[in-house]
Amino acid sequence: MTAKRLRIAAVIAISLIFILAWMFPILWSFLNSLKTDKDVLAYPPKVLFTPTLEAYRDVLFGSASILPNLVSSFIISIGTTVITMLLAVPAAYALARLRFPGKRFAGFYVLATQMLPPVGIIIPYFLVLRGIGWIDTYQGIILIYLSFSLPFAIWLLVSYFEDIPFEMEEAAYLDGASRLRTLWRIIIPQVRGGISVTVVFVFLNAWNEFLFAVVLSGNTVRPVTVAMYNFISVEQTLWTKLAAVSVLAMLPVILLGIFAQKHIVKGLTVGAVKGGGRR
Amino acid sequence: MNGRGHVRFEQIVKMHGNFKALKGVDFDIRPAEFFALLGPSGSGKSTTLRILAGLDAPTSGRVMIDGKDVTSADARDRDVAMVFQSYALYPHMTVFENIAFPLEMAKMAKADIAPAVQDAARKVKIEHLLERKPGQLSGGQQQRCALARAIVRRASLFLLDEPLSNLDAKLRLETRAELKKLQRSLGVTAVYVTHDQEEAMTLADRMAVFMAGEIEQIGTPAEVFTRPNSLDVAAFIGSPPMNLIPARLAGGNVIIAGQPLATTRADLSDRNVTVGIRPSALRIGPTGLPAKVDLVEDLGDSAVLDLDCAGTRVRARINHDDIPPENSSVFVTARPQDIHLFDPDTRKRI
């Protein structure tokens, strides 16, 4: 075997180890979700078993159905994502384009909010929400999620907006477009990739959030990440159901990722403007 | 000719912080005129165009279009079309959509848009590229697309910001000629920014020469070429540039390298001057200033000579037929009407 082949083999081996390490929990959850309660506790673990959808039936349609929790998660995640994007797109555009006093500070502030440790603010948040009676409400949780997702989304989007040359907008103004119409027809289509990336990140963060959800939610609004925890108790852990819920909770995120991938096209603006602007 | 597109700049001043980019600019552009704003970079010509387009606001002064004060009007309310140096095509739209965009913004009926786009595309010969995206076009084709987008709306004013500077030399010459024909056939007023004096000379009906935020001279290319107002204009216009030689004016003659050259200005009293002589105005003859030929640049149909006139460096452009050999000694002279006199202190024409 030559040195080159050896190197390739080593790279493949190391990559495989990483892939396996990453895949194992997902695969393990998936396999466990198809086992019976008896199979899942068998020692040594059973690799060959008769698959069953019983766990899924139980968690979806049984007495402790997590369907309402999935709905809660969807409302919270979609609500957070939609409001974030509605506010972040104009904000990022403004930060990238307009000149106003304190612009530099505003940019720094947006980043600074990302540096706070969540545990440090969870109690103040709880007190504020309790004060206005928004504990265990959708608006309460969405409001708190916005406080994280909005700065993050703005910060992510600004760089995409800054990549678009000034002259493109000026051309649109001269063609008779208003500022809003220019944003809608000329700018946003060109930052589609950036918007897709941001949507995925914001949705993902809201969907997967646990710490704030467990403190600020209750019996009415309980996202699936919190509900999942109910399958773990002092007496026993319902492994098959926990695995089934995990798999169900992963699905929307994976689907969103696949869907967004198509829109994340790099280099859309390449070749549009030759020579660049004067600024 | 539609009689639209009359532009008037009145005392336009533009400050960038403490820097005066324009120091009170006045000019008039007549309807259907091809007007060039010429000057070196940083002279204020692009700022002037941006103020005319409504992309920048002047610090003071008035901008009038067709008798209307548009100083504070939005760019989109001015009825001007512009071709940017970078073309600024919309990369996510096809060529057709790019050209149709201004019509759409003007709320033209859908049924009328397609024929108008076709017509504009035909005028710049890109009707076969309408389905492409800008990224799939060559530089020249992108430039034409930008032109079509500008002419499709039949705006009263047509602004061009160095539109040829990103094309290669051959394409630039072709496009230059087409641009002029296009402007003539449309009968629109065109304002053209360039730092290339040859472009301005060949395209413009009249031009304004900008220097350091001020207009040095306005006139037809021939006027500016034959009677430059100042040393700066004289040095900027013409290739190779005008010879500028410090000399003494005495009795209507200028004394260069100890030899007198007759001028048309016998009326002036004796004084120090800067003499300007175009390289093409210098002739080689049996008498005149003695000079040594340092270098010959043969251009095929003519040649540029680097001459040493007793220590003063002078360039002459002569016919291909009578090129003297390098290091030979010759006599050069110029007709009195070809000798320009400038005041070395005020830098203005005398």
Q: Could you please describe the fold and organization of this structure?
A:
The complex is a heterodimer of chains A (279) and B (350). Chain A is 69% helix and 0% strand. Chain A has helices spanning 3-33, 37-41, 54-61, 67-97, 103-112, 118-131, 138-162, 166-174, 179-187, 192-208, 211-216, 224-228, 239-261. In chain A, α1 packs across α13 (239-261). Chain A is globular, with a radius of gyration of 24 Å. The model of chain A is unreliable at 266-279 (pLDDT under 50). With 350 residues, chain B is an alpha+beta fold. Chain B has two domains: 7-236, Rossmann fold; 243-342, OB fold (Dihydrolipoamide Acetyltransferase, E2P). Chain B has helices spanning 45-53, 95-105, 110-123, 139-151, 169-186, 197-203, 221-226, 231-236; strands at residues 7-16, 19-29, 34-38, 60-65, 68-69, 80-83, 157-161, 189-194, 206-211, 214-219, 243-250, 253-256, 259-262, 271-277, 283-285, 289-298, 302-309, 312-319, 329-333, 340-342. In chain B, β1 (7-16) and β2 form a beta hairpin. The model of chain B has no long low-confidence stretch (mean pLDDT 91). The interface between A and B is medium-sized, with 29 and 31 residues.
